[in-house]
UniProtKB/TrEMBL annotation:
Protein name per the record: 3beta-hydroxysteroid 3-dehydrogenase
Family of the protein in this entry: Belongs to the short-chain dehydrogenases/reductases (SDR) family. ERG27 subfamily.
GO cellular component: endoplasmic reticulum membrane; lipid droplet; mitochondrial outer membrane
UniProt keyword annotation of Transmembrane present: yes
Membrane spanning stretches: 239-258
Length: 346
């Protein structure tokens, strides 16, 4: 078991998640045995995802075997997260890679009037920092937390904290997937759970930036490397539902125009977007250098990919970290009772 590298990729059945799996398989030592643990909220999507990765592996000449496993987890449900922790602890004695890729927003559609206005007044901005996606305000999970906060930030953090012994045993690399849309303006420290925000998705990515910035040194003390990345801009399967054939190709066309006029972030394809997350996971870096930076997947005008790093504005990082650490203690307490109850004999 110890010679096998174990990689957990949350939200594997997304454009980015699948391509992280593909690139990790390509970049890892071909002699290594790999186990890819896919996660999804539903079994059919997990199965579909494993089939796609299997197909990809069949096209490679790889002497080391690739095995597959799945984990059903919903990050908006603390009991589900706890269950994921038990499943991982029962099945593995170490984990080598943990990609925090799953994320969700609470979108209710597109403000088409604003979208058209934005596209005509500043097309590059319209496909780089779109403000026309309508997000619902005040949406809570069944656990009573801000839904986007729990799904994108606290849920994954809680699972990571629970599986620290496994990550330590694997001298793991944790890779957080953030976004270019994570500017400080998207977060108010008075609204950590993003319940009053109409940009909760972007706010959650700002929280990811700050949480990483404040916590990577603690992970380092345990021998765990933690990196902050972002995939640039690429076609997202979850956004298709709001587009028809015309708006989809219109958006794609604008993506290519944006790249051609000089945007380095329009990767467009999931494969190129997965460059930075897999780069930080597989680079030979025994000295844990540059963990304070944000590693972005970037593309030149001709489509050639490269890694572009940025500094993070860390103001508020310690406040965010303390808030999230306190919330973890609170949930440890709450879930203690939950576990006791589920173990009571019938
Ligand atoms: N698309 C872009 O241009 C862009 C730009 C910047 C950053 N990103 C980031 O890149 C990552 C991947 O984006 P994407 O567009 O490829 O993803 P996507 O199509 O939106 O898919 C999201 C994935 O997350 C999982 N997920 C959603 N809510 C979840 C929950 N509550 N619990 C557990 N899993 C959940 C879904 O899994 P199941 O449905 O199978 O459960 C799905 O596989 C995200 O972190 C996103 O924020 C994307």
């Amino acid at each position: 078991m110890s010679s096998t590298k174990v990689a957990v990729i949350t939200g594997t059945n997304s454009n980015l998640g699948l391509n992280i799996a593909y690139r990790l398989i390509e970049k890892s030592n071909p002699e290594d045995k790999l186990t890819i643990v896919v996660t999804s909220r539903t079994l059919p999507r997990a199965r579909e995802c494993i089939d796609l990765i299997k197909k990809f592996v069949n096209t490679l000449d790889r002497p080391g075997s690739v095995d597959y496993d799945y984990l059903l987890v919903d990050f908006t449900n603390m009991v589900s997260i706890l269950d994921a922790y038990y499943s991982l602890s029962n099945r593995y004695d170490h984990i080598n890679y943990f990609f925090v890729n799953a994320a969700q927003g609470v979108y209710s559609g597109i403000d088409w009037f604003a979208a058209v206005k934005e596209v005509f007044s500043n097309p590059l901005e319209a496909v780089t920092n779109p403000t026309y996606k309508i997000q619902r305000v005040g949406v809570k999970s069944k656990d009573g937390m801000g839904l986007v906060f729990q799904a994108n930030v606290f849920g994954p953090y809680y699972l990571i904290q629970k599986i620290l012994p496994l990550l330590q045993a694997g001298q793991a690399t944790i890779v957080w997937v953030s976004s270019i849309m994570s500017a400080p303006k998207y977060l108010s420290l008075q609204d950590m759970q993003l319940l009053k925000s109409d940009v909760s998705y972007e706010g959650s990515k700002r929280l990811v930036d700050l949480l990483h910035s404040a916590s990577y040194k603690d992970q380092k003390k345990l021998g765990i490397r933690q990196y902050l990345t972002h995939p640039g801009i690429f076609t997202s399967l979850s956004f298709f539902q709001y587009l028809n054939v015309f708006t989809y190709y219109g958006m794609l066309f604008l993506f290519y125009v944006a790249r051609w006029i000089g945007s380095s972030w329009h990767n467009i394809e999931g494969y190129k977007a997965a460059n930075a997350p897999v780069y930080v996971a597989t680079m030979a870096n025994p000295n844990f250098e540059m963990e304070q930076m944000k590693y972005g997947s970037a593309t030149y005008r001709d489509g050639l990919e490269y890694i572009k790093t940025d500094e993070v504005d860390t103001s508020g990082a310690e406040d965010v970290y303390q808030y999230i650490k306190d919330l973890k203690v609170e949930w440890d307490e709450k879930l203690k009772d939950q576990i006791k109850q589920t173990r009571l004999p019938l």
